[in-house]
Amino acid sequence: MGYQGEDTIFALSSGVERAAIAVLRVSGGESARLLVQLCGKLPPPRQAVLRRIWQDATTRDNLLDEALVLWFPGPRSYTGEDGFELHLHAGPAIIQAVSAALVDHGARPAEPGEFTRRAFLNGRMDLIEAEGVADLVNAETEGQRRQALAQTEGALSRMYDGWAQRLKRVLAFQEALIDFPDEDLPPEVEEGILADIASLIADMERHIAEGQRGERIRRGVVFAITGPPNAGKSSLLNWLADRDAAIVSPIAGTTRDALEIVGSLAGIRVTFVDTAGLRETEDEIEAEGVRRALFHVKQADCVIQMFAADDPPQTVFANAVLVGNKTDIAPVPVEIAGVAVVPISLKTAQGLDTLRQMLEDRVRALTASSSGMPLLTRARHSAGVKDACACLREAMRQDWPEMRGEELRLAMRALGRLTGHVGVEDLLDAIFGQFCIGK
């Protein structure tokens, strides 16, 4: 049947918040015995039935709750093991009593990620799909949900498996050149090997080039709001947050430290960072604020560079959205240093809808795939593809068939580590330790 955990485990999968129903999940070799112990007999597989839950059903001792029960015999279960779910009334006393009964009958509380780890070990999903489950549970925006769902359904895994199949074919031809050196194999074999390797490298390089887009969807896009004092940065932050998140004052230098608010644009999580006004100052605290502002500008995915209509900047930050505020008191230039200016007035709300649309367009540009490939979502994936690509480049440089074959095998191992097919033991604790208890 595959991997069987030594223990039968249980966890509250529905979270600890107060609710009408609490879902208690159980998995392991003793699941059938435990379920009979709690409710008297096994229900039909994968059918919800209403049963009384007892401390000990054989003696009808201590009624704990009346709940919906679902029985999932392996291997057609989430973990691939026998398991069941109890849909209990969500009172803390009920959850505690049923959990105590499970412990009394031999089960133990699950560790973080243990259910999904068992699913991986039983071949129910690969590592990339398992990471997608973690991202799906943590998804806060539409973009995160779509990306995580595609990953759990195997979009990224299928692409990597496709590369592995292409590489396996190349390696087979390469092995033929090694095993039959004295045969007069046509030159087209060697040419075909090199052409296939080059094609794989091109696909991997396109994938790597878009790597930050997927990670931005997963972690969110960061906008740094910068500009001189009194340009309206804090007022813009309050408008974006739809609340008074920052202190607004006509006194220059009010904002000394970075202030962050989190929102959503175009279905993507975004963080806006209000920074100290950029100017030369002898005030040590304000000077530290300016230094931190410049740090956030360098780290941000995009910069919203603001200025007052009567004080246009001389220079523009790279890849900035240039915003001219206070159009109610003076006109703003159409462009500065070749960058178009978005004219707004935070006082009269002029141009704010246009600015929001421009920020949404920038978010889409920073996160959309231009190649049509599934996007990289984690640094681990990026590192694995880069390792495979480096091995393929080295294979192209080798004249000796044996050396080229070795580099191709190393590339295969790098791809295998991504999905968990080879050499992943040292990764498992780090990956599944990020999960919640019930997963």
Instruction: Kindly provide the radius of gyration, computed on alpha-carbon positions and rounded to a whole number of angstroms.
Output: 29 Å
Strand order of the largest sheet: 8-9-7-10-11-13-12
Distance from N terminus to C terminus (CA atoms, Å) equals 21 Å
At the third CATH level, what is the topology name of the largest domain? Rossmann fold
- According to CATH, the homologous superfamily of the largest domain is P-loop containing nucleotide triphosphate hydrolases
* SS class: alpha/beta
Question: How many individual helices?
Answer: 14
Task: Write down the oligomeric state.
Answer: single chain
Strand content: 15-25%
Provide the domain count: 3
What are the segments in which pLDDT stays under 50 over at least 5 consecutive residues? 251-256
Mean pLDDT across every amino acid position: 84
What's the story with the biggest beta sheet?
7 strands, mixed
The CATH class of the largest domain is Alpha Beta
Query: Architecture of the largest domain in CATH?
Result: 3-Layer(aba) Sandwich
Q: Based on Cα principal axes, name the global outline.
A: flat
Pattern of helices and strands: EEHEEEHEHHHHHHEHEEHEEEEHHHH
Work out the helicity level.
40-55%
Compute the number of strand runs: 13
List keywords for this structure.
Rossmann fold, tRNA processing, 3 domains, MnmE_dom2, Gyrase A, domain 2, six-stranded mixed sheet, Four Helix Bundle (Hemerythrin (Met), subunit A), seven-stranded mixed sheet, 439 residues, alpha/beta, potassium
